[in-house]
Amino acid sequence: MSLNTVSAGDLLSRTLPESTIPRVPNAEMIAKPMHASIITWTMPEIIGDGLMVYWLIVDSRDDGTLTSHASASEEPRPLPIMLRELEQLLGQYREKTWICVPKRNCNIARRFADSGYAVTRGLSQINRAAREIERLVCDAKLSLTQRARQRQRLQEAPARR
Questions:
Q1: Is the pLDDT of residue 95 over 80?
Q2: Which end of the chain is more exposed for a tag (fewer CB within 10 A), N or C?
Q3: Each residue of 33-47: b (16+ CB within 10 Å) or e?
């Protein structure tokens, strides 16, 4: 029986599986002045909208202000777009920000960690932005559903005549 050996360099260059990203933040993360939370979703229940990927980024600054940014893309893998928007929103505050993302959502936790952010999986309630994001997502989904229903009614109206 032979043992496979791996050099330390190989271990460092390998991308980490998402499960190695912590679920519980450490004291260093909690102490960061900026907290952010990111969530993505699709809405296949809306006819014709199953290909859209929506995301919401909420950040909380140390002065207590909350900022939210909603976006969408038809791109099946919108991670590069999300990273670009996150860079624009947080700018030079990368080292001062802790981000929490839902478990297993397009591997965004791993990609953000690979980009140099302090990241945890799961919407930790310690994170100020995470406390707001679920409410905002419910509001966004309700609004999108209402708009889709209204669009459908408008499209069916000429057919009825």
A1: yes
A2: N
A3: ebbbbbbbbebeebe
Residues facing residue 41 across a β-bridge: 54
Nearest one of 17, 73, 18, 84 to 41, comparing CA atoms = 73
Spatial separation of the C-alpha atoms in residues 123 and 96, rounded to whole Å: 18
Q: What are phi and psi of 48, to 5 degrees?
A: 80, 0
113-115-118 Cα angle (round to 5): 40
- Residue 106: pLDDT band by 50, 70, 90 thresholds? low
> Where do the H-state alpha helices sit in the chain?
8-13, 27-30, 79-90, 108-114, 128-160
User: What is the token pair recorded at 154?
Assistant: 């408008």
Task: Encode pLDDT of 9-39 as tens digits.
Answer: 443 444 545 567 888 888 898 888 888 998 8
Q: Which two tokens stand for residue 42?
A: 């699709």
Q: What is the CATH number of domain 17-154?
A: 3.30.420
The pLDDT of residue 90 is: 83
